[in-house]
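Appendix B: complex inputs.
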Amino acid sequence: NMTSIEELKLRVRELENELIKCKQKRCTAIPRIDKMSAEVVDSNPYSRLMALKRMGIVEDYEKIRTFTVAVVGVGGVGSVTAEMLTRCGIGKLILFDYDKVELANMNRLFFQPHQAGLSKVEAAEHTLRNINPDVQFETHNYNITTMEHFAHFMDRISYGALQEGKAVDLILSCVDNFEARMAINAACNELGQTWMESGVSENAVSGHIQLIIPGETACFACAPPLVVAANIDEKTLKREGVCAASLPTTMGVVAGILVQNVLKYLLKFGTVSHYLGYNAMQDFFPTMAMKANPTCDDRYCRKQQDDYKVTDQGGPFLLFLSLSLYFTHHDLGCIELVSEQTEEELHAASGPVPDLPEGITVAYTIPEKETGVSGGETVEETEQSLEELMAQMRKM
Amino acid sequence: NMTSIEELKLRVRELENELIKCKQKRCTAIPRIDKMSAEVVDSNPYSRLMALKRMGIVEDYEKIRTFTVAVVGVGGVGSVTAEMLTRCGIGKLILFDYDKVELANMNRLFFQPHQAGLSKVEAAEHTLRNINPDVQFETHNYNITTMEHFAHFMDRISYGALQEGKAVDLILSCVDNFEARMAINAACNELGQTWMESGVSENAVSGHIQLIIPGETACFACAPPLVVAANIDEKTLKREGVCAASLPTTMGVVAGILVQNVLKYLLKFGTVSHYLGYNAMQDFFPTMAMKANPTCDDRYCRKQQDDYKVTDQGGPFLLFLSLSLYFTHHDLGCIELVSEQTEEELHAASGPVPDLPEGITVAYTIPEKETGVSGGETVEETEQSLEELMAQMRKM
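Resulting structure:
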């Protein structure tokens, strides 16, 4: 029986070694780094970021480690957004999502097939911690739009920063439905919290990002969103046998321009865009500034505007409208139908309504009390060429 | 001793189970799929791509499985490019790179710390196979610019397609140096092979993509590149203690617009851009068409032009020049100094020369025999505003 014992001992040693190797392959922990170094060696994960200082782009790159960013929605855009911020060495990330990873998500970056079935926030945290152990993570596996969770969401964005008891520096909306955007909008208007919106159209070929500084720039309720997902969530889409298209390219571009805007905003370099659209069919990227709407439905938005004392509202707000018509015309998008608007007004405002899959409605709303743009005029505007629109932009 | 044997047996069983779990976590193989389905179920990785057909964007999405794309350079842009194509279900990918994964690459997407030390093509293939087992992979761990490997590179792009003995459908240049771009350019001009160029500036805040159809559009030798990496490779940079900056955002955006252009080109939808630039500081994305230069130094380019019978060269070529000056002025970029140009000509051509880190030289070359743009004129052009440049674009 001695042989048997020796054999078994040998087998145990073999298995132990194999297990160690397997675990190492899966996630070789890299050491935490106390202080970002600009040293140019292969083993320094921050050398190429610290080089931004020497190149004259960013004055104080290390400051990135002091910031806390909340990402709401860890799907096609949110997961890549979180990965980019993690690789840039952000101080803390707070992730919110209530969905699970599915194989149907594999046509977008970030999640891998072996993560199917895990909650998105759990799977994301595991991957991101392995990529950069210097980042702090806090995850919440719930839907922020329910009453109970909304209160907790408000609490975490108000007090969840790295600096105990402080509010986060920025909230990024990477959600796929109207309700979640409105929830973030309501929270941020009440708290005076700056955030950035992002979105990708249901046909996968356009998207946008938007900076919202309560009281200063247009909030999500101030004006009709330019490119908006249908106001039905993914589960509804599936139930009805309808499925939105998505592409890793469009979502990667939107995440890229979103996080670029975050870096520019936090580290103070370049021009922070108030609105940047992406039309993939024509490689058209409109940018513009949008001021808050004094007749906004959100009373906290109007209160923030009073505090900010907005003046001269007309110009940018009109500009915003003409470009949104361009989008509704070209996107075949799925835009939320606002109830106080009739079908006729809708047609007049947004030009030809495209054929849409069942369960998705088109909508467009001109903010009430808006003057200077008549219904008839706007129909024609949707027929304008890109050049004419851009020429118009400059005139404003 | 029986206890000991029982204990050992128990330990072996425990370890075996743990090992199985570890291996499963690392790479749960998903089954291959013979035929892309549009069925909307959580387990279908292609449902969101096939939805592009129902949305009216792509006519025949399944055709993606018949295409072979070669990616040269699997770094910050190339790895994300390969991942996007893999997730889109491309038929076959041929990857070329001779570099190893390092922790210093962790500020860009795709590679993970546990892959440090592996060759980039090996690490990439492993990750990509796990993501989508339906894609065929072929990897080459060598430098295409050496004589021997260049011949092999020519062979693989000529005969490496899914369809035995056929040329690849497209080559994507995701390299970081001038020599490799010139090697791809030479090969493609000789073979009449369509390819796309991509690049990110050394200061990490601008990039571009370019479609090159030999004889039809400007090749890499036809005109000075708009945004170019320094003509010193990464190893030289490191040796001199100089290190280029990079950002996951800029590289993600460039990979996204590159693969979007690939999808539009292969699946025939939208407008395929000949040139699309990205200036992250100002969120400026110039697009334009560029025709081949009849006086190009590459004789194969001139031969392809004869075959294509190019007419009316002037307009787009001038446009190209005025925008390249915009870039050289704003980029603080690292552009290759062409020997036949004097320092004075350089200053005259590219406006104020920015302070650059040691070891990186600025260069700009106006193609010989170019008429209609005098040196003095171009200096002033670099001082123009974006609006003026775009107005000028439309006049051409």
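Residues 227-240, 312-386 of chain A have pLDDT under 50 and may be disordered.
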